[in-house]
Specification:
Layout: H1 8-28, H2 32-39, H3 43-50, H4 58-68, H5 72-75, H6 77-80, H7 91-104, H8 108-126
Length: about 130
């Protein structure tokens, strides 16, 4: 059975999503392969999003946004731009999301080491050497 023809709105949505994914991935220095690893979305699927030939579903938009440290409305402002419950995606929250996302893949032992290192950094920032 043939696929439905896309209307102009669907094409516009895909182009907007593609541009936003590219923009935030470029800002982070992420290749499609890196983004695929972070999101667990196949690289070939991401390629379709980059080329604006397919549209990610809400779950995939969430994964992409988390990996890029932005809100879902930053990836798809047309469908998610008016959601009041979404946190603002300023630079601090984006960076924190990246830290959390990366830490989730660590072993328990490495998580303990990372926590100890963060404690060290906090201590150093409170007691700077003159």
């Amino acid at each position: 059975m043939p696929r439905n023809k896309d209307n102009d709105f669907d094409k516009m949505v895909r182009k907007e999503i593609a541009a936003n994914i590219k923009k935030y991935a470029d800002m982070r220095g992420y290749s499609q392969n890196k983004l695929s690893d972070l999101t667990e979305i196949k690289q070939s699927t991401l390629s379709g999003y980059y080329r604006a030939t397919s549209t990610p579903n809400a779950g995939q938009i969430q994964k992409i946004a988390m990996a890029l440290g932005v809100g879902i409305e930053d990836i798809d402002p047309i469908r998610f731009g008016n959601k009041k419950e979404q946190p603002a995606s300023d630079d601090k929250s984006g960076l924190l999301n990246q830290i959390i996302h990366r830490a989730e893949s660590l072993s328990d032992n490495d998580k303990e080491k990372a926590l100890a290192f963060l404690d060290y950094l906090v201590t150093q920032s409170k007691n700077p050497k003159i």
